Amino acid sequence: MGRSDQRGNEMINSVYFNSIEIGTVQTVEAFGNITFRAIYKKSKNGIILSKYFNNLEDAENWINHKYNLEHKTKEKKKRTTKKIQKCQIPFASALKKDISKSGFSQKEVSEFINCHLRSITAWQAGTQYPAAHFIYRICKMLGEEEAPKKLIEYMDLIEKERL
């Protein structure tokens, strides 16, 4: 259903996706030629994008394309975030349990392996992974006899989580 603004530019049918208006196409007459201005407002930051086309179908397709790009990206980010959150718990939990069982504080661990205390906190929270040389040093700190076995265990957990 069309509508007009005060300047006489006719607003052509709004473009919908699942009953939600995602954009508008406006007819624009300039120098005797009619063009179609596709208008799309990004939902994330409110920025309005527009582009001119020679026909209505191309303008509507552009709006649909912009909408799909924005929402597929959001969906992909959500899925990636969920996967990371699910996967990081085993390594983080194992590390936290082993350090706790050893009786060492986070500060003592950070001093022994020569890294910042915030790194230890991040590893135990599951937000980051330690570099291999830090894992090796932690394993050595937890016990000389257990070090090779623990190193393999930690590296396997990390490798599985990163896949």
pLDDT below 50 for ≥5 consecutive residues: which ranges?
1-6, 84-88
Residue share in β-strands: 15-25%
Number of folding domains? 2
The Cα radius of gyration reads 28 Å
Global structural class = alpha+beta
Classify the helix fraction into a percent range. 55-70%
Labels describing this entry:
disordered N terminus, 434 Repressor (Amino-terminal Domain), about 160 residues, 5 strands, rod-shaped, alpha+beta
What is this structure, in a nutshell?
The protein has five helices and five strands, in the order βββββααααα. By secondary structure, the protein is of the alpha+beta class.
What can you see in these coordinates?
This protein folds into two domains: 3-71; 76-162, 434 Repressor (Amino-terminal Domain) (Orthogonal Bundle), CATH 1.10.260.40. Helix 2 packs across helix 3. The chain is 56% helix and 22% strand. With 163 residues, it is α+β, with helices and mostly antiparallel strands. It has helices at 56-102, 106-113, 117-125, 132-142, 147-162; strands at 3-4, 10-17, 20-30, 33-41, 48-53. The chain has five helices and five strands; from the N terminus they run βββββααααα. Strands 1-2-3-4-5 form a five-stranded antiparallel beta sheet, with helices on one face. The model is unreliable at 1-6 and 84-88 (pLDDT under 50).
